[in-house]
Amino acid sequence: MDATFHLNNAVFNVRAAGVMIETGHVLIHKQVSDNHWALPGGRVEILENSQSCIIREMKEELGFDVKINRLLWVTENFFEYNSKHFHELGFYYSISSATASSHFTTETFHGEEGNRLIYRWVPITELKQLPLFPEFLRTSLKQLPLTPKHLIFRQDSL
Question: Which residues fall within 8 angstroms of residue 72, CB to CB, at 6 or more apart?
Fold first, then answer.
């Protein structure tokens, strides 16, 4: 059971995401039906820590093991999605392959869960033009923080 709580027209959830960078590209994904992109990851399950979550999610979604390098950001993100107000706590980790093998490809691809998600390696220099959320990632992925940062974002319509 994931740490997502639904209350009337609002949702509270805890998410962990991985920043995987290879050859100047970052791995992003989106649901086939969505117009926006995000970093791969998922909802933290009850009694699961955020590091274990990202390791589990990457294995489930992409079929390979990752290691956690370090925590980059902790975010409090307030936004609207599918006519619901979200309050999301996000843990963003620098991750890399647990083996020496590269996973980089120039092709868009689907993961282990079928055609529900589309993955793509995007040059970090081109992120500003993409609908990537949370929006701070469009510029912040160019220079990762040396120590973890706490960030709060509130979508204007909330």
Answer: 19, 92, 93, 94, 144, 145, 148, 149
One-letter identity of residue 53: C
Q: Contact, 67 vs 101, CB < 8 A?
A: no
b/e string for 115-130 if b means 16 or more Cβ within 10 A? eebbbbbbeeeebeee
pLDDT per residue as tens digits for the range 98-157: 998 899 999 999 999 889 999 999 999 999 999 999 999 999 999 999 999 999 999 765
Token duo for residue 61: 């979604």
46 contacts 25 by C-beta, under 8 angstroms: no
Locate 121 and state its tokens: 């390696």
List of long-range contacts for 3-6, beta carbons under 8 Å, 24+ apart: 3/43, 3/44, 3/45, 3/46, 4/43
Beta strand extents in 10-154 (DSSP E only): 10-22, 25-31, 41-43, 66-81, 84-97, 109-110, 117-123, 149-154
Handedness of CA 104, 106, 20, 50 (dihedral sign): negative
pTM: 0.92
Architecture of the 4-152 domain: Alpha-Beta Complex (3.90)
Domain boundaries, the chain: 4-152
